[in-house]
């Protein structure tokens, strides 16, 4: 499913009056999660999981084509940890 399909499903399931309204709702949902996680806040959604950010340490990697060592700097990344309900739904 891509974003356009998500917007369509969101509109259908919530009874949004227009596709534009459903798109605004989906975009607001995404913006809230991203901005919250970017400030270091954890976002917990019951039945789905937890979005948070973690620091990935700097490391030395290798270019698979040339076998040359490359220094990869550390950075903050977003992480999603699925909740029990989501795990169970996927594994049944």
Question: What labels describe this entry?
Answer:
92 residues, alpha+beta, three-stranded antiparallel beta sheet, elongated
Please state roughly what percent of the residues sit in beta strands, choosing from under 5%, 5-15%, 15-25%, 25-35%, 35-45% or over 45%: 25-35%
Derived from helix and strand composition plus strand pairing, the structural class reads alpha+beta
Radius of gyration over all CA atoms, rounded: 18 Å
How helical, in percent, are the residues? 40-55%
Q: Indicate the mean pLDDT.
A: 95
Rough outline:
elongated
In DSSP terms (H or I, runs of 4 or more residues), the helix count works out at: 3
Description:
It is a single chain. The strands form two sheets. This protein has a three-stranded antiparallel β-sheet. The chain has a two-stranded antiparallel ribbon with strand order 3-4. The protein is 42% helix and 29% strand. Strand 3 and strand 4 (69-72) form a beta hairpin. It is built from three helices and five strands; from the N terminus they run H-H-E-E-E-E-E-H. Helix 1 packs across helix 2. The radius of gyration is 18 Å and the shape is elongated. By secondary structure, it is an alpha+beta fold.
